[in-house]
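COMPLEX REQUEST
Ligand: flavin-adenine dinucleotide
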Amino acid sequence: MTTPTPTPTSPERAPVVIVGAGPAGLTVGNILRAAAVDCVVLETESREFIERRPRAGFLEEWAVRALERRGLAGRIAEQAPTHTEFEFRFGGERQRFPYTEITGHHHFVYPQPLLVTDLVREYADVRGGDIRFGVRDVQLHDVDSERPSVSYTDPATGERRLIHCEFVAGCDGARGVTRSALPAEHATVARHDHGVGWLALLAEAPPSSDCVILGVHPRGFAGHMARSPEVTRYYLEVPAGDDPANWPDERVWSELHARLTVPGTRPLTEGPLVEKRVLDMHNYVVEPMTYGRLYLAGDAAHLVAPIAAKGMNLALHDSLLLADALIAYLGKGDDSGLRGYSEACLRRVWHYQEFSQWLAELLHGPSSGDAFRAGAATARLRRVLGSPAAASTFAELFIGKDTDH
Ligand SMILES: Cc1cc2nc3c(=O)[nH]c(=O)nc-3n(C[C@H](O)[C@H](O)[C@H](O)COP(=O)(O)OP(=O)(O)OC[C@H]3O[C@@H](n4cnc5c(N)ncnc54)[C@H](O)[C@@H]3O)c2cc1C
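STATUS: Structure written out below.
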């Protein structure tokens, strides 16, 4: 909901207010700064917190190349390991899937906290951008007019502050406030619930394989993903809404061994589990992603369960389009990018959502308790591994399509 504009003491002005300093908001901010467009980024958490929050780790090659062209991929191109294949483990077998050999493209493994750290440093310390951490009670006002504004409570003084602007970029993720400024009669929210949870784990243990492992097992899916030479992300499919307290470390490791070990593989290397939380596997898409002068980007507009590692890549895609569109409008009065923004983002969003749903069924079907779903999921897996045409389509979707950015 957008609320009436308050009358605080000293209103400020900026062409663009960006709500949220995740990958989406920081990318928009950096590109605007490089084009000398002033903006203010508002973030509820502290800088230390966002630079440590563990989440994603896989960047698609087109996204890294796009960041590179904006001078935003320094450490990725230099330091990030690349992945070229992954392994399915199922029915006591292991099968490599060489997606780079098929598509010519690879993934970069770059943990999200490192990306956020790089983007904050570039925005605040190098490009001199205005970013305000720890803000409280962010509210949007008059976004359906030509003079929107954003207010918030200053954490140091407790005062309400008001920023008049021309545009608001809603980049505040799945739990933010900007999405609720789109009236129900203007936007639809399409939702899909996979009906399962994933126990997301971070282990202080070196990876146990040189690639991602997707374990398809009647006890439930299990995943292994390298994050660094010392840290590995694991996932275990669990009932939706399960409590991490039901998963003491011994139970976690025993279940990971049961679902991921097949003859001929080296045993998993165990280590302290420093993150353990249950993610309910659900997706949503807000359509259109805009209302008046408000433009949503990233998880604020669409959530894709981390089944196919697509969310951060989509957030980057939106933010590249949005930054370019804002610059074209504010610099040259060209509004074509803003008019086409939602549609251009949603094409890729739906493409990735559909793939994620397709892959989810392959991973969850065998443990669904439904013999029909289990049989169909196994047929799907065998087709990907047995048919060059199916493998080629799968590989293209898994690596993400190329883009002009
Ligand atoms: C366990 C896990 C693993 C994942 N793995 C992958 C992967 O491998 N690859 C991939 O592509 N994606 C992955 N994702 C998804 C990815 O992390 C998200 O899609 C990505 O963070 C979206 O970026 P964003 O900038 O839109 O939102 P966020 O990163 O959520 O950033 C939003 C920011 O807004 C701030 N904020 C919230 N509310 C407010 C407010 N009211 N006012 C101001 N600021 C606010 C938040 O503190 C946050 O800093 C994963 C997600 C999880 C949870």
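REMARKS: The pocket of flavin-adenine dinucleotide is lined by residues 19-25, 42-45, 50, 55-58, 112, 138, 171-173, 175-177, 200, 279, 298-300, 306, 309-313, 315 (CB under 6 Å). The chain has eleven helices and 21 strands.
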